[in-house]
């Protein structure tokens, strides 16, 4: 006789501690096996895109920094690049390099949160997950110290603005950066035993496999896409902010599973350190802004009927800003292309067939930030 069970509908979230924010997953279960999942979003919606229609272009970047709050300057950079593209504003080389410097600092700090919290997601059974989290947040402090020295802030720096950056590097900053990079390179090597032990692999290898064709179809990007075998990185493909001046590898794996996604982020830590070193060693001389003085910027206007889009490679993938201008001092429409939102669409395809215990292991491997999802 075959034992039959009724389908159970279970809510996981939106206040679940491991859903990485206010996400609600409606799980349809047969026993502990997942038959179907319905992600429910919108709990963190703040109407940021609508707010942009009531503010001047120079006042918008600080607002956008609150979207993907683990990489705030990259939100601002996507919007600023779009404005500069539409208005034909040139950015000094030194400012471009400093934008890259802060972008890579934030890429590492974001990945450290992703890797560290993933250890917590997998729990004590993973064998040292709590230790991994402590190591990641310890090392993240070193980079936040650099960020504070450069910008005066550890979180939302308001560093990137239209035409350049607000602050130049202080005296002795290059020495501090090189000391930090040397320390972090050695420290990051110590993470590897946590990410390659048998328990971690048992929880992640062949779990939540996202095939290449499906990843492309849903618009996945960033480490989620590269872990499925697609070597696409906007820093290489587009070369914005002088990224073409720097040598680094696009980390790509073929597994498409939770293990591959975590491994891509880990290996990208070392590539970002390479870029930071190259920025410091090759920092050009000259101005940090084409709109001086910085403290009293002239208001920006884009030509009427201007449509413009710019994108950056955020820690989660393609972060884009679309602007439509009708010639007024404020944009008529702003639309953000959120990588967390697109990557999250994989959940309903890759979660069915797994078990409740795999839910957080799969979700955490996508590294969603819900300010980025809901906006």
Question: What does this molecule look like?
Answer:
This protein is of the alpha+beta class and 375 residues long. The chain has a single domain, classed as Cytochrome-c3 Hydrogenase, chain B, CATH 1.10.645. The chain has 16 helices and eight strands. The protein has a three-stranded antiparallel β-sheet. A three-stranded antiparallel β-sheet has the order 6-7-8. α5 runs antiparallel to α6. The model has no long low-confidence stretch (mean pLDDT 91).
Largest sheet: 3 strands, antiparallel
- Spatial gap, N to C terminus: 51 Å
**Looking at CATH, which topology would you report?**
Cytochrome-c3 Hydrogenase, chain B
Please state the structural category. Answer: alpha+beta
Helix percent reads 40-55%
In the CATH hierarchy, the architecture is: Orthogonal Bundle
| Alpha carbon gyration radius | 21 Å
- Adjacency order of strands in the biggest sheet: 1-2-3
> What is the name of the CATH class?
Mainly Alpha
Query: Roughly what fraction of the amino acids lie in strands?
Result: 5-15%
The average pLDDT score comes to 91
Number of domains: 1
Cα shape: globular
Unreliable residue stretches = none
What's the β-strand tally?
A: 8
CATH superfamily: Cytochrome-c3 Hydrogenase, chain B
Order of helices and strands: EEEHHHHHEEHHHHHHHEEEHHHH
Helices, by number, come to: 16
